[in-house]
TrEMBL record:
Superkingdom of this protein's organism: Archaea
Record keywords, A-Z: Iron, Iron-sulfur, Metal-binding, Methyltransferase, Transferase
UniProt organism field: Fervidicoccus fontis
Protein name (Swiss-Prot/TrEMBL): 23S rRNA (Adenine(2503)-C(8))-methyltransferase Cfr
Example of a GO biological process term: methylation
Gene3D superfamilies: 3.80.30.30
Domain Radical SAM core stretches: 30-197
GO MF terms held by the record: iron-sulfur cluster binding; metal ion binding; methyltransferase activity
Length: 271
């Protein structure tokens, strides 16, 4: 069936939270496979096992219909730990407004004593603010902001909410005392590696007391294609430029006294 421009399929799963290979996380919760935000750089397609979603990235999303029932059983036997919410999908993409799988799973996990680390691009997470507030010591919320310019976001994250709305969501959550962080990544030469962009993101981190994670673009096989929208940038990828920019960014963070951590492999997830 179609919901807006998204082709939706339904699947049943055997497991709700999976072991996470990402640093800092014990488990991953991904209520959907695929993501209608359709970011052109998204690496998650490489880790999405169903080809309907991975080969039609941004257009097809699979809904895990029995997720909540499976999770209810799983939380009783799994060791408590940190769950990354949305590691290969955005758990707050538009379909979540209809199916509420994330909301229901988050409640179960928090009530069962798990710690949740969210990463999203969608202010829909504010719908669940009351749940998060009840467990504010047990959650942190990260928003990916690659630029505060809508034109940049529209190009590289075509269906995601505009960055200004994400910035406002971070403000709203941090004002309520929820621990927030910003993921500035991927940093792509000539797209979002300018000083104005870095300054705007650093300023937002200062204002909201957010930790800043950053990551430069990792070139993946799906990008090595003549029709790939960043083809020219990939072909002429300038590592020295990236290095200089990251040094500039680290210096800006130091000047502003904010915690700034780099690298997907070392520190945090990057999608
Ligand atoms: S980067 Fe995140 S929001 Fe964008 S398509 Fe991938 S999972 Fe969705």
């Amino acid at each position: 069936m179609k919901v807006g421009n998204t082709e939706v399929h339904f699947i049943e799963v055997k497991s709700a939270i999976s072991q996470s290979g990402l640093p800092d996380l014990d488990y991953a919760l991904n209520p959907y496979l695929g993501c209608s935000h359709g970011c052109i750089y998204c690496y998650a397609r490489l880790y999405t096992k169903d080809e309907r979603a991975s080969k039609n990235w941004g257009k097809v999303v699979l809904v895990k219909t029995n997720l909540v029932e499976v999770l209810k059983k799983e939380v009783k036997r799994k060791k408590k730990g940190i769950v990354g919410v949305g590691t290969i999908t955005d758990a707050y993409q538009p379909l979540e407004a209809i199916y509420k799988l994330t909301r229901r799973s988050v409640k179960i996990l928090l009530e069962s004593g798990f710690y949740l680390s969210f990463q999203t691009k969608n202010p829909l997470i504010l719908r669940d603010k009351e749940i998060l507030l009840n467990y504010r010591e047990k959650v942190d919320v990260g928003f990916t902001i690659t630029s505060l310019k809508s034109s940049v976001s529209k190009f590289i994250e075509p269906n995601a909410p505009f960055p200004i709305s994400r910035a406002n969501a971070i403000r709203a959550l941090s004002k309520e005392g929820i621990k927030t962080w910003i993921f500035y990544g991927p940093i792509i030469p000539r797209i979002n590696d300018d000083r104005e962009t870095a300054d705007a993101i650093v300023t937002l981190a200062v204002e909201t007391g957010s930790t800043l994670f950053y990551d430069s673009l990792h070139i993946k096989s799906f990008m090595l294609n003549d029709t790939y929208p960043l083809n020219e940038i990939i072909r002429t990828f300038d590592k020295a430029r990236v290095k200089n920019f990251l040094n500039f960014l680290k210096k800006r963070c130091e000047e502003e006294g904010i915690i700034c951590k780099g690298g997907f492999e070392e520190e945090k997830k990057s999608f």
